[in-house]
Amino acid sequence: MKTAFLLDTCVISESTLKQPRENVLNFLATAENYFIPMGALMELQMGITMVCATNPIKAVKLSAWYHSLVRAEIPIVTTDREVSEIWGVLAADSRLQRLVPSGGKKPRGGQDLHIAAAALVTRLPIATMNVSDFMLIHECYPLPGIYDPLHDRWHARMEPLADQYPLAANDARDEDEELEHSAVRVF
Question: Quick one: residue 105, left, alpha or beta (phi over 0 = left, psi -120 to 50 = alpha)?
Fold first, then answer.
């Protein structure tokens, strides 16, 4: 089984950099399956809008890139009721307050909590180079996984239950076979 990933904004936007890092581009080219969370789309749009104030030509190029990205048929994880509720829990947690947007000089999208909520709902690991923020969230609310494509390193990873409890998986298979045989005997 191949791993699917939820992409953080920094991974998605790597290809827009003047000197994109090869490891990240290779990850995007070879990953079997990935999803874009709505929080990342918000951060991308916010970044393009901010660039527009200082470099309109670059903003037009980024906007064209953004529109081709959303038309690329990469599945988007929407912010439904369940994601919103978990996002609210994360945003209210005092241990995570440094991840909530503030009125500082450089506005933050504050979408790490939003992306983490989407990961918790979908049970997808997050591909990010912003490991420290997601590890903070993970300490409070264990995430399905945190993978850094730049360094090809897992920082947190939930193992499938079958891997943790191989006997339980075999017992379930034995029970299924037993039920199958007993059903044949009944008829």
Answer: alpha
Whose tokens are 């999208």? That residue is 109
Read off the tokens for 86. Answer: 């978990």
Q: Is 103 exposed, middle or buried (0-12, 13-18, 19+ CB in 10 A)?
A: exposed
E strand intervals along the chain: 4-7, 33-37, 76-77, 126-127, 145-148, 153-157
DSSP character for 94?
Answer: G
The token pair that represents 9 in the structure block: 């904004």
Task: Kindly report, residue by residue over 83-141, the tens digit of the pLDDT.
Answer: 999 999 999 999 999 998 765 555 555 799 999 999 999 999 999 999 999 999 999 99
Domain coordinates of the chain in residue numbers? 4-160
Which architecture, in CATH terms, is 4-160?
A: 3-Layer(aba) Sandwich (3.40)
In a 3-state reduction of DSSP, which class is residue 102?
A: coil
pTM equals 0.82
Sorted by sequence, the CB contacts under 8 Å of residue 111 that are 6+ apart come out as 9, 37, 39, 40, 42, 43
